[in-house]
Amino acid sequence: QVQLVESGGGLVQPGGSLRLSCAASGSIFSINAMGWYRQAPGKQRELVAVITSGGSTNYADSVKGRFTISRDNAKNTVYLQMNSLKPEDTAVYYCNADFLGYSDYGALREYDYWGQGTQVTVSS
User: Fold this and answer.
1) Which of 9, 59, 71, 104 could make an S-S bridge to 118, C-beta 3.0–4.6 Å?
2) Residue 96: beta bridge partners?
3) Where is pLDDT greater, at 105 or 95?
4) Beta strands of the chain (E only): which ranges?
5) Angle 34-7-75 from CA coordinates, rounded to 5°
6) ∠ at Cα 41 (40, 46), nearest 5°?
């Protein structure tokens, strides 16, 4: 079936940069949108950035001007370039995909999948 594989998380100093990647694979007909969410300990999951297959984007106010979301439609992959990182950016980052795919009985339907999450830690 469908899988979302995330990579790029890690430990970085304040002011540093990281690039997250998320590749969708499986019985995908087309992707409507992909995005990134994050959740810090003791806090609710929040939207970071979303991009549609047509290129429209949406960012959380806290990351505007620092983060950039992009995609490679041919590879069903979304990226998140994170610059000027701050300690408050520390969280588990989750990839999300809204896509059309084939069910077990062969019908085309819409799915909403999540990756397993990747840890981003910003600390001195």
Assistant:
1) 9
2) 35, 114
3) 95
4) 3-7, 10-12, 18-25, 28-39, 46-52, 57-59, 67-72, 77-82, 91-102, 108-114, 118-122
5) 50
6) 35
Interacting residues of 47 by C-beta distance below 8 A, sequence separation 6+: 35, 36, 37, 58, 60
Instruction: Tell me how far apart the alpha carbons of residues 112 and 92 are, in angstroms, rounded to a whole number.
Output: 19
- Check if the beta carbon of residue 53 is closer than 8 Å to that of residue 73: yes
pLDDT score, position 22: 97
The model's pLDDT over 28-75, given as tens digits with 9 standing for 90+, comes to: 999 999 999 999 999 999 999 999 988 999 999 999 999 999 999 889
Q: Tokens in use for 13?
A: 């100093």
Q: Strands 118-122 and 91-102, how do they pair?
A: antiparallel
CA 104 to CA 124: how far, in whole Å?
49
Q: What is the pLDDT of residue 80?
A: 98
Distances (CA, A) of 115 to 5, 73, 83: 6, 18, 22
